[in-house]
Write a structure and sequence with these properties.
Elements (H helix, E strand, L loop, with lengths): L6 E5 L25 E2 L2 E2 L4 H4 L6 E7 L5 H15 L3 E6 L12 E5 L3 E7 L5 E4 L7 H13 L1 E2 H8 L1
Parallel strand pairs: 1-4, 4-5
Antiparallel strand pairs: 1-6, 2-3, 5-9, 6-7, 7-8
Length: 160
Amino acid sequence: MERAGPALSAQARPGHDVGPRPRTPGTRADGCGVAQEVGGVDFLCDPRSRFGGDGAVRRDHVITRPLTDYLRFEFAHYVHNVAAGEDIRILDLTGRENPGLPDQDFWMFDESRVVPMNYRPDGTQISREVFDGDPIRFVEWKRLAVSESVPFSEYVRASG
């Protein structure tokens, strides 16, 4: 996939199950090298090698405390993602009103191509398909999430 600008992963669910993920030869002990294909894109450990274009990858994760086991697992891995260059931001809605973000995970590429991630109530992934409509609502959700969130490392420091 050719890409000129950043990719965004917006995550609102407290956990999910996408099923078994393929393990590629040469996978490192820290999990790097495990690929998951979403919308024709292989996600690898180093954000700068994931895509063409500027290689920037941002993840905005909306959470509430207490963290689920799944979120604790993700947070443990976010340390490595941040070290690899991924910009991860956290929006903690514990004790505050949702500013208008949906309960919908999605990937967005170049603010023009969107891949919504659809789940059953138990967190099992149902589908992930390229969205054919106008992406403006996803772009607005991205801007809102960025303006309301803080960098992962700042969140970890502040929450102890």
